[in-house]
Amino acid sequence: PSSNVNTVMCAVTIEDNIDPVAVCPATPVVLELDATGSVTLAADALGDGSSTDNCSVVETNAAVTYGCADVGSQMVMLTATDPSSNVNTVMCAVTIEDNIDPVAVCPATPIVLQLDGTGTVTLAADALGDGSSTDNCAAVETNAAVTYGCADIGVQMVMLTATDASSNVNTVMCAVTIEETVDPVAMCPAAAVTLQLDAAGSVTLAADALGDGSSTDNCGLAIETNAEVTYGCADVGVQMVMLTATDGSNNSNTVMCAVTVEDAIDPVAVCVTPIVLELDATGSVTLAANALADGSSTDNCGIATETSPETTFGCGDIGTQMVMLTVTDVNNNVGTEMCAVTVADNILPMSVTCPADFDITITDPNICTSDATATLDFSDNCTSSADMIITTTAVVDNGGVITGTGDVLTVYNSGTGMFDFTGTDLIVGDNVVTVVADDGNGNTVTCEFTITILDVSGPQINSCPDDIIVTAPAGDCQMPISWTPPAISDPCDVFTFTASHNPNDLFDVGTTTVVTYTAMDASGNTAECTFNVTVNGNCGSIDLIPNITVAPSVVFGSSAMAVTLDVSEVGGVDTDGSMITIFMPRDSRLTFTWDGNYVGPIGFDNVDNTNWTYNGANPFFHIWTTTNVIGADSNLIFGFEGMFDSAGAEGTATLTMGIGAGSGGEAVPLNNSDAEVIFYFAN
Questions:
Q1: Closest CA to 46 of 66, 30, 67, 69
Q2: Residue 147, exposed/middle/buried by CB under 10 A (0-12, 13-18, 19+)?
Q3: Helices (H) and strands (E) in the chain, counts
Q4: Integer angstrom CA distances of residue 11 from 14, 16, 233
Q5: 318-330 in b/e burial notation, b at 16+ Cβ within 10 A?
Q6: 462 in helix, strand or coil?
Q7: Cβ contact 346:440 at 8 Å
């Protein structure tokens, strides 16, 4: 009651022996693998306070790392511990997920597919999967199977799908190259190729001519080609040409194809220059084998042979005969031509006999004609004597004077086998009988014989001219003389007449010429007439020559000088009184005064200037003229004295004297100049 209190601390043990209740998190735990395919459940990550305890509780779990193999539900122990170390555990579900898509990657090695012989190829299912695709875990690569054909050649895109174990998917379009590497089969054309050489011996196989579509390919040909080739004669036969088949993928194949080159052109047989065969004395001639072959025939490739048959001709074949010329070329083509061969009889009648010349004398002076007969003989190789054509003519040749005569005839005498000649009224003189025998083939032979009809009466000459004497004009060396020819006659009017000269012939001055007329008849009887022709006169040609003389010809400084000019006639004929002109070129170093009245010595000559007229007005020449006649073989001399001045120099000067052409009637102008050289020196 006094409220006194005493305390003591007594131990009271309080115990918690009740285990907590471990409870998994209310929210399911889901973990996602990372890019490395790993994820870690952190320690105590399951504790979200869901566990209970009468006091308090601590929730723990161990840390756990998961990989791709753990995808799915994994059980993890959650431990609940209270402060009294009461423990309770529970197994909690932890879900491991892979939500990262794989990376689809086309194969590292390009995919190339080759079309087969049928033109197809198949990309197998999953053929693009080579493990190039990536994933944080693992992926399966797939692609659909695809069949390609020729239309797909090139790059085709195919989808590659990468799928991982968690069904994550990724796709990529991958290139697949479709190639066609199967060579085509080159095939020669179905129809044989034959080329014909042209006329020039040439033919061309056109480019691509061998392509006819026979070649084959799995995808179809693009082209069939061959080179253009030109062939010539040396190529006749089978030639091999390469055919190339190329498909659309440039695959090619070749084959050697036979091309046959043919020469089907026949040669052109050309006849030689016309052949003429002459029959021989027996009336026969043979055309030799191949005589028509002379290389004239032509062919595009060349001639192998030219042939013609041996053929014998006779008199019955005279004229044109046709013979075949056969030409074979080097390729056995044959051409023919009928060639003209002329068979000719060019042999003159073989036996020709005319009688010898003979004379017949007419004794009756009143008869001037006579008859005559003779026998002739002719034969021929082809023509009988009876069939020969005989032509007979006769003329009289009296010293080159041809006249007609009587009638003549030659006929065949079948009794004698010879020919009889008859001449009627043959006139006086040499009756030249010409007999022409023609064999009818254009061959003629001629024989001649002369029947001389002689008379006894010679020709007569009447009125023979008297002698003629004349005088020719001065200077003429010849003169035409005329007269009347004598009259000549003959009883039979058959004569030849010759004259040594004819009226108006030229006769030389100073001579006497005998003129003779001679007449001769056909019998050789002659008559003659002569007279003299005398021509008097003086024959010559006017010829003037100049001569210039100077003194002195050597000058020192200035000196007096004498100049003389001499004109001489040397042709032996007086000048005709026409003007004579002398000219001397001017030289400024020579000066003088002309004295036309001077007669006397100058230098070494005596001169007479009175015959000459001086013209000093010409600027280039000193000129003197005269009309005086210079007698035959005489001369005229004139001159002057003057001064020559060397003008302080030295050298030579030439003074020239010339005679004008035709002066005084001169006919010889070749010597009309003369010159004198002056040597001058300075003082």
A1: 30
A2: exposed
A3: 0, 53
A4: 9, 16, 145
A5: beebebebbbbbb
A6: strand
A7: no
Contacts of 153 (CB under 8 A, 6+ apart): 115, 178, 179, 180, 219, 248, 249
Q: How far apart are CA 215 and CA 244, in angstroms?
A: 9
Q: List residues bridging with 360 in a β-sheet.
A: 453
Length of the chain: 683
Predicted confidence at residue 227, as pLDDT, reads 95
Residue 224, burial from CB neighbour count under 10 angstroms (0-12, 13-18, 19+): buried
Q: Is the dihedral of CA 70, 73, 75, 78 positive or negative?
A: positive
SS3 565: strand
Q: Which of 511, 544, 506 is nearest to 632 (CA)?
A: 544
| Residue 540: predicted pLDDT | 67
Distance, in Å, from the CA atom of 497 to the CA atom of 153, rounded to the nearest integer, reads 125
Helix, strand, or coil here: 449? strand
| Pairwise CA distance, residues 494 & 466, whole Å | 27
654 Cβ neighbours under 8 A, 6+ residues apart: 675, 676, 677, 678
Q: Where are the beta strands (DSSP E) in 440-493?
A: 444-454, 460-462, 468-471, 478-481, 487-489
* pLDDT-based confidence at residue 93 (cuts at 50, 70, 90): very high
**What backbone torsions phi and psi does residue 386 show, to the nearest 5 degrees?**
-65, -25
CA distances from 44 to 19, 48, 64, 200, 202 (A): 19, 9, 10, 112, 107
Does the pTM of the predicted model rise above 0.85? Answer: no
pLDDT value at residue 376? 84
Lowest mean pLDDT among 115-124, 187-196, 308-317, 401-410: 401-410
Residue pLDDT, tens place only, 159-204 = 999 999 999 999 999 999 999 999 999 999 999 999 999 999 999 9
Q: Which pLDDT band holds residue 538 (cuts at 50, 70, 90)? A: low
Comparing 69-83, 252-266, 336-350, the range with the smallest average pLDDT is: 336-350
Say yes or no to pLDDT of 494 above 60: no
Query: Whole-angstrom Cα distance, residue 366 to residue 455?
Result: 10
Amino acid letter at 233? Answer: C
3-state secondary structure of 374: strand
